[in-house]
Sequence to fold (124 residues):
Amino acid sequence: MMGGWIKLHRNLTHWQWYDDSLMVHLFIHLLLSANFEERQWRGITIRRGQLVTSTQQLAEGIHSTYKMVFSRLCKLEKSGEISKIRNNQFSIITITKYDDYMDADPAGGTAEGQRRDSDGTQYK
Fold:
């Protein structure tokens, strides 16, 4: 499994699909699974924000059914959240606004958050 983190903005709670928990689960799974840097796969360049998968793999990855994942992928594609290139073996899914979700600067964050973090965080 890849190491690292993803950035998840609080305004996700205002996302048009937020009331559909399976959709949120699927979209976060896509964010976690997407390339964070360009890579080669079987002679194909898979760019940052893309992943090679199938609907069945996604369904298994989030413990759902093929039909439920397929319908949500169609909604994500129709609303412009993702785009897909398909063939009979796999799909390349592109998260269209990947860089909005995943800042390229791993040291990012607000100055206030960084200041508080340097002061030490206590959990009770």
Q: What stands out?
A: The beta strands are 39-41, 44-46, 50-53, 82-86, 91-95. The chain has a mean pLDDT of 85. DSSP finds five helices and five strands in the chain.
